[in-house]
From TrEMBL:
Protein name, entry field: ParB-like protein
SUPFAM superfamilies xref list: ParB/Sulfiredoxin (SSF110849)
Cross-referenced Gene3D superfamilies: Conserved hypothetical protein from pyrococcus furiosus pfu- 392566-001, ParB domain, DNA helicase RuvA subunit, C-terminal domain
Signal sequence, renumbered to the chain: none
InterPro entries with a match to the protein in the record: ParB/Sulfiredoxin_sf, ParBc_2, UCP029669
Top-level division of the source organism's lineage: Bacteria
Amino acid sequence: MAVQREPLLNPVPVKELRPTQITVGMREVALKRQMIRAQSVKKTGTFLGTHMVPAVLGPKGRHYVTDHHHLARALIEEGVKDVLVTVISDLSALDKDSFLFVLDNRGWMHPFDENGQRRDYAAIPKTIAELVDDPYRSMAGELRRLGGYAKDTTPFAEFIWADFLRRRIDKDDVAKNFDKAMKEALTLAKGKDADYLPGWCGPTSD
């Protein structure tokens, strides 16, 4: 299969992008929306020029996003119509079933729902706007910003952390007091139980 790493010269409508996961953290999306609102149109354009969305070209020439789902969702919510895309692989010659199988096995897909359960490929939404909220994905993003773990190149690393937190912090506690739940998450992130996770920083001496 041909591999293309140069960005496309023509922008792609954000609404036409296909997700490769089922969920996002809507708190994460809200933060990106705030960032877009707080800066000028020119600055947003410059930002998008340096944060092109990576995608795999699939059947019928559709672009399947492999990263930046939160940014893409925020752009839709803020009325931004187009975004530059970097095609990391052209798999458009494959049939749909083969294509999805390859995405999955190359780590370009995360077919897990808001409860952390693996689902059939058909459960992945057809549009970015249909992505479902997973509060634990928001926790994982906030945890990294707070220094709970380091940025890592492992595919879908934040979802791995989200699953770790999901098994240890009650969902009702997250909904009732997010900040309190984050304090618990920080403590858990520094414990030995988390040492297998991508970007683990180890225990502190505090």
